[in-house]
Amino acid sequence: MGATEATIKIHRRRIMEKMTAESLPELVAMAREAGIKVPWQMTFRSELVTGMSLRSAD
């Protein structure tokens, strides 16, 4: 049994509200800062959707 896109969006919205994240890239950055490993594909998808890079400017 898989999760529907709508279910995933609802859960993501609730997490973003609890974490006070204003965007998905901000939520991903928060997860990274908390030590949660974020899959490369998710990071790449965020960049495609928002045009923002989450990589540091080292």
Report on the structure:
The chain has 58 residues and is mostly helical. The chain has helices spanning 5-19, 24-33, 40-50. The protein contains 3 helices and no strands.
Low-pLDDT runs: none
Shape field = globular
Question: Major β-sheet, in short?
Answer: none
Determine the N-to-C terminus distance.
Answer: 42 Å
Query: Strand portion, in percent?
Result: under 5%
Radius of gyration: 12 Å
Look at the helices and sheets and give the structural class: mainly alpha
Distinct helical segment count: 3
pLDDT averaged over residues: 76
The number of E-state strands comes to 0
Compressed to H and E, one letter per element, the order equals HHH
Helix content: 55-70%
List descriptors.
single chain, 58 residues, mainly alpha, 3 helices, globular
Secondary structure topology:
Elements: H1 5-19, H2 24-33, H3 40-50
Brief digest:
This protein is mostly helical and 58 residues long. The protein is built from three helices and no strands.
